[in-house]
Amino acid sequence: MDVTQQAAKPTVAEQITQKADTLTTSERKLAQALLGNYPMAGLETVATFAERCGVSAPTVLRFASKIGFDSYPDMQARLRGELEARLQSPLTRSSLPRARNHSGHPMGELLHDMAEATIANIRTSLGNINPAELQNAIELIGDCKGSVYLLGGRFTSALAVYAYEHLRTMRSHVRRVSGQSAKWAEDLLDVGKRDVLLVFDVRRYQSDVIAFAEAAYKQDAKIILFTDQWLSPIAQFARHVFPVRIETGTTWDSSAASMVMLETLLEGVGQHNPEQVRARIKHLEMLRRPPQS
Amino acid sequence: MDVTQQAAKPTVAEQITQKADTLTTSERKLAQALLGNYPMAGLETVATFAERCGVSAPTVLRFASKIGFDSYPDMQARLRGELEARLQSPLTRSSLPRARNHSGHPMGELLHDMAEATIANIRTSLGNINPAELQNAIELIGDCKGSVYLLGGRFTSALAVYAYEHLRTMRSHVRRVSGQSAKWAEDLLDVGKRDVLLVFDVRRYQSDVIAFAEAAYKQDAKIILFTDQWLSPIAQFARHVFPVRIETGTTWDSSAASMVMLETLLEGVGQHNPEQVRARIKHLEMLRRPPQS
DNA sequence: GAAATCATGTAACGTTCGTTACAGAAGGGG
DNA sequence: CCCCTTCTGTAACGAACGTTACATGATTTC
Predict the structure, then answer these.
(1) pTM (2 decimals)?
(2) Cβ atoms of A28 and A72 closer than 8 Å
(3) How far, in whole angstroms, is CA A181 from its chain's centroid?
(4) What is the pLDDT of residue B162?
(5) Is B89 on the interface with A (CB under 8 A)?
(6) Can you give the pLDDT at residue B291?
(7) In the prediction, which pLDDT does A92 show?
(8) For chain B, how are helix, strand and coil distributed in percent, rounded to 5?
(9) Cα separation, B292 vs B225, whole angstroms
(10) Structural domains of chain A in order of their starting residue, each with its CATH number
(11) pLDDT for B8-18, tens place per residue?
(12) Which A-chain residues 224-263 have CB contacts (< 8 A) with chain B?
C-alpha cells in the first residue's frame, strides 16, 4: 500500500502529543485515558468515553476537534484504521503508540530516565537470580507447615504489606510483623523451626529488622531475604537470598525491581499448589459475599 | 460483578463456526467477511457492514441474532472484549524463548517472562504519561498548603504505605487513611479544599475506596489517582489520572509499573523543592540521633 | 407449472448518537 | 476581593443508528 506516505498521516497518539500543551485540564484527562488504553478507549461512544473520564460529552468533542479532527467519528475512523493495520501485520507489532517523544519537556526526561533505569535494574536483577534458588524459596513457602512471617524496614515494609496480602489469599498462617519494633518481641515468642521469615532489608539496613531476623534464626526459623546487591547482614542467617538492584540515579532508592522479584516469587508459590490456592480463593469469596441475596 | 460467568465464553468466531451450516447465502457472506477481517469488520455500523457485504441491514441483524446474540451492539461488545484482551497481551503471547542462562529450568522461564512482561508494562505506561500531567501533579503535592492523604485498596495499599513513607520525609502534613474502612469517616472530617488525596485503585475497584474519594471530592479536596488502563470510577472526580498497565499474564495483577510511576512522581516532588526537602531530612536525622554524644 | 416456503430487501419506527448554542462555573490577574 | 477570561456542563437539535413489520423476490416441492 502506501508505505511511502508516512508524514502525511500522523497517528492519533502523535497528534495528541503534539497538541499536549494546549490541552485544558479536562482534555488532559481524556488524553491520558485514551493513551492509557489505546486505542480502544477512543472507539467507545462520546457519552461512554466522557462518563468514564468524568467529563461531559461536549468536552470530548472539543478535544477531538482540538487535536485536529473534523468530528468524533472522524477520529474513530482513524483509530480504527491504525488498529486494523496493526492487526493485519502482527509482525510489525512495534507500531504500538510508540513511546512518545518526551524530549523537550523536563518531566518527559524524568519519565524516560526512571523507566529505563528501572528496566535495567529489573533485567540485571532477575537475570542474575538462580532459578534453583527461586524454586527452593517457592517450595519453602508453599510447603511450609508452620507460619510465614513478613517483615520489612522503613521503606521496604510496603513490600511486606504487599506480600502479606497476596500470601494470605494463598495459604493460612501468614503473619505480618508490624507496628513499633519494641513490640516485635511478642511476635518472636511464637517463631519456631517450622516457620519461615520473609524479610526485606535494603541499605541503611535497619538494626531492629536485623535483630529480629537474627533472633528468628536462632529459634530455627528459615529465612528468605530480599535485599540489595550489597547484601544486608541478614544474609548471614538467610537460607535464600535475593539481591536486587535498587539504584536509579535519583535521590531515593527504588523498590520497583524488588517488587517484580517479589511478584515472581508469589506467582511461583501460587503455581506450586494451584488447586489449594483456587479452593482457598473460592472459599474466601464465598465468605465475602454473605448469604443475603 | 456477574456470577453468570461459567465455563469460559466462546469467542464470536467460535459461535459463527458452530452455526455455520445453518447460515443462509447472505449470512455466509457476512460470516466470511467478519472472519476475514476479524474482528474489525464487526465493529462497524450495521449499515456499513451490510453495504460492504452487499446485503441489507436486517440481514446483518438476523445474522447476529442467529449466532446467538440479543442484539448487534451485544455482539460488538463481545468483539471489543476479545480485541482488548488481544491487544493487552501482545508480549506474553509472542515472547519467544530468548536464550538466557535460564533456559531449561522452569523457574528460569518464569523469571524471564515476569521481567519482560513487567518491562513492557513500564514502557507502555510511562511512555503514555503526559509530562505536563506529571508536572501538575508534582506541583499539586509539592505546593499543597493543606494535608496530603494517602489511600489504597486491598493490594494497592502497599503503594500508599510506600508513598506515605517517602512523602513524610519530604513534607509535613502527610496522612495515611488506613485501618477498617468503617473508621475512615473520621479522616474525612478533616478533609478540605486545601488538601490533596493521592489514591490508588485498580480493577475490582473497591467500593469503600471509591466512596472515600467521592466524599473527599465533594469536600473540595483535589484528587490524584493511580489506576489501571480501564480507569477506576474515581477518575470522574480526579484532577489527575495516571493509568498504568497491570497485566502480566499471571494469576495476579502487578503493581510493579504503578510503583515505578509512583517513584517517578515522588522523585519529581523531591526535585520540586530540593532545599526544603534537604533541610527536612537533615532535621529528621538530627532528631533521630538525640544529643547524647 | 403452480403453490408453499424460505430468504431477502424496503420502509418506517423509536432510540441513541454526535453536535451545537448558551449559560453558568472556575480560575487567574489586577 | 472583584472583574475578566477561559473553561465546562446543560439542554436542545438534527442525523444516524439499530430495530421491526411487511412486502417482494427467490427457491423448492408436489
Answers:
(1) 0.83
(2) no
(3) 28
(4) 98
(5) no
(6) 58
(7) 42
(8) 60, 10, 30
(9) 44
(10) 12-97 (1.10.10.10), 113-288 (3.40.50.10490)
(11) 568 888 888 77
(12) 248, 250-252, 254-256, 259-260, 263
